[in-house]
Amino acid sequence: MKSIVLFGLLCLQLNCLFVHADVLVGGDKEQPVEITSDLKLLVNDGLRQANALGGDFKISEPKEIIVMRYATQVVAGILSKLLMEVRFSQGSKLVSVELWDQPWTGKYHQLTKTCVYTSDSDTFYPSQCDSATNCGQLLQQKGTCQQPST
Question: pLDDT tens, 59-76?
Answer without folding.
Answer: 989 999 999 999 999 989
